Amino acid sequence: MNQRFTPRLTMFKQTTAVMFMTATASLLAASNAHAWTLKEAAEPYSGTTIKAIFLDRPGYKAAQKLIPQFEKETGIKVRWEVIPYENTREKEVLNFVGGGDQDIVLVDVVWIGEFASNKWLVPIKTFTDNPKLADPKLNLPGFFPILLDSFGSWNKTTYGLPFDNYSGLMFYNKCMLKEAGFSEPPKTWDELLNTYAPKLTKPDKNQFAFALQSRRGETQSADSFMRVLWPNGGSLLDAKFKSNLMSPQSQAGLEYRQKLMKYMPPGIVDFDHAEAVNALAQGQVAMITEWSAFYPTLTDPSKSKIGDCLAITTEPKGAAGLKPALGGFSLAVNAKSNAKKQAASWLFIQWITSEEMAKPYLEAGGVSARTAVYQDKAVQDKYPFVKPMVESWQGGVPDYRPRFPEWPAVSEVIGEWGSKIMLGQVTVKEGAQTIGTKTEDILKKAGYYDGKKPLLK
C-alpha cells in the first residue's frame, strides 16, 4: 500500500470509530430514555381503583404492607376485602355470574380449571404481548415451574401468576422431642406413628404428638384426606379418572390416618388451620404438617409460645417416598372487568409477583414463587423453612388435588364422607367406596367417560 495514504486511512478509521461510538451511545441513551417503567406504564390508569379478595393469611398481610408503595408509584388504588377461604370461591363465582366489581381474581390451584373453562379469566398473553404493559423483566421462567404450571395455567394457557404459594412442611417442637428422647424429627410416617407418637402423647397433661387439620370442607378434603393418600402410593383417581380409593395403597393411607387419631387432640375433626397452628404454638402438640405460609404466625411472639423450640423439615416420607402437599394461589385478571381496570390489575399482579419484589414480599411475611430469591444464602439462613420448602417444590405432586372444574363438587363429597370416616360413623372401606361412587357420578355427568371431555388437562 502507498504509504502516503496510510495516515488518511488511519484518520478515516478513527473518525468512523468515533462516529460509530457516538451513534451507539446516542441509541443507548435514546433506548434508556424510553426504557419501560412502571410509572410510565401506569400513567393512563392513574386514579383507577381496582378491587381484590384477600384471605386472612400472612401472604396477604404482606401484600397489604407493600401496596402503598405501588399506589404511590402508579396512582392506581388497590382495594381489598378480606374473607374466609371457605367463602372465597362462592363469592367469586357469584361475582362472575352477577357482574360484580372484582377486578383481581384470587385463583386456588383447584379453581383454575373451573374459572378458565368458563372464560372468566384473561390470558396473560393479552398483556405480555402489549409492550406498554409488559415489564421486560417479567421473566416467566423465573417462577418455580410446578407453581406456574399448577396455579396459573390451564390447557397450556397461562392465566395467572403465582402469588401465595405453599408447600406442606413439618413444623415441630424440638424441645418436646428432646424431652421424649429424640434428637431429630421422624423421617417417615411410619416412624411418626409407631415410634414418636406413643412417647409424645400424654392425654392427662393435654399433650399430644400430632395435629392434622381436618375440618369438614376443603380442609378435610385437601389438607387431611389427600395428604395421606400420596405418600402411600395412593390417589383419588386413576389414569382413566376412575376411583382409586379402593386400591391397597389408598386404603393403607386412610387406615393410617385412623390409627394416628389416637395421638391427636380430641375434636381433631373440627380443627382448621388456625387450630392446628395454635396447638403447636401453645405447646399442646409436638408436630404438625402445615403450609409453609404459616411460618410467620409461629414465629410471632404475640401468637406463639414455641420460640426457639420451633424447627422445620420436610413432611415425612411414605412408602412412595416424599410426596408433600402442594397448595397455593395465583392472581389473575377478571375477564368481565373493563379494559382500563384490566390493564391496571395486570400492572399490580405483575409488580407484586416480580423478582424485584420477591425479597420485600418475603420480608413482609409472604412466600414468593420466584426461584432467585431462595438462592440467596442470607435468605436461607434467615428463614429456616426455605430449604425444605424448595426441596418439596422440586419434588412435589403437581396434581396433589385434581384441578378439573368439577373439583369443588368432589371436594364436598370428600368433606362429608372423609369426616364420617374419621369420626367412625363409617368404616374406611365404606367411606372410600361411597366417595368413589359419588365422584364417578359427578365426572360421568360432566362427560369424562363418554369422550366429551379429555381426561387430562
From TrEMBL:
Subcellular location(s) per record: Periplasm
UniProt keyword annotations, A-Z: Signal, Transport
InterPro entries tied to this protein: Bact_solute-bd_prot1, SBP
Signal sequence range: 1-35
Transmembrane segments: none
Domain of life: Bacteria
Pfam family, one: SBP_bac_1
GO cellular component, one term: periplasmic space
PANTHER family: ABC TRANSPORTER PERIPLASMIC-BINDING PROTEIN YCJN-RELATED, ARABINOSE-BINDING PROTEIN-RELATED
Name this protein carries in UniProt: Transporter periplasmic binding protein
